[in-house]
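Support reply, case 0932

Customer input (verbatim):
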Amino acid sequence: MGAYRAIVIGLGGLGSAALHRLATELGPGVLGLEQFALGHHRGASQDHSRIIRLAQHQDAYAALAAPAYRAWAAVEEESGQRLVTRTGGLVIEDRVARAGTATGTRNIEGYTALFDRHGVAYELLDADALTGRWPQFRTSGGEQALYQEDSGIVDAARANAVHVALARAHGAEVRPHTPVRSIRADGGGVAVVTDGGTLRADRVVLAADAWTNQLLAGVGLRLPLTVLREQVTYYATPHLAEFSPGRFPVFMWHGEHNFYGFPVYGEVATKLGQHMGGEETTADGRSFDPDPVRRERYDAFLARHLPRFRGPELYSRTCLYTVPPDQDFVLDTLPGTPQVVVAIGAGHAYKFAALIGGLLTDLALGKEPAHPVDAFFVTRPALTDPAFGRSFHT
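Our regenerated output:
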């Protein structure tokens, strides 16, 4: 039986960041386990780009936004690799399309209220000002936009690889192609069962996302998680200069559906996705075939609002969101088994990944987290009260 000071299960965005931070703190004796190849496309952390932004409409996330930028900067400094590209960012609300729809704080007023509370500079633009500044957009006149200059892109696949490399530099061991079959409490530690034998760790960080409940069964817990199959499409636009990172920002469009888009980055193509609304699936039963309904929906949106963003479809790619009923993260030790820390990104954690790696390390080592994580506890009503229900924003 191998013995380790810490084992991280799952080396996607949150797991690779936790592995880096644990290895930084503990040195040798830290192990990272990944059931597939490193950089695989079966989970939630693949692909070139994720939006990073200060724009948040909930206090729990707004409090983490600026620290996340600092965490990414520290990883860049340690590695000498560029991971964050600032492009500026837009939140665009189609108020006509959303009329009569309950949006909570996920609207312009919700974002600006938190910007004001946290002292973040921004600009408000009406539809004419939006198209005057970015003529790539077509509007119907009912839109309002919020611009924040610090928004941009974090390179997900590259950042995962950087976190793993830095972890190895600090003495961590990494084993790809090593599925974990179960975990169980083992005295004050954890037994981690793999096909090659049972490993023992003083503590475990479980960052298995869509496979989480399969592994929590060994400690007698099941979380109310829904796995959704989401999708992005890359378009080989011929208008490269118009959509270069220096001339076109990342954006989120809140209308009948919630779209998000990127300038040309990673591929010689633009990229569009929809937040939430994908079909329910399972980690092992999901399809990798793109959804034709999504393709048509994306095409209709672009034809109306960003016609030159389009081009021949380079490819569409699916990924998985693992989502609690309230759509919030899970970052916590397990009740009765504090030597196990669980992390769920809820489909929107990557922008915070470098920071979350440190928070998971704090939890694993029994320290007070460097930033508040109370909203993400496993004991909150959304995870413990069957009457809570789910309320996904599509």
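We compared this against your earlier run and they match. Two observations from our side: The mean pLDDT is 95. The radius of gyration is 21 Å. Please reopen the case if you see a mismatch on your end.
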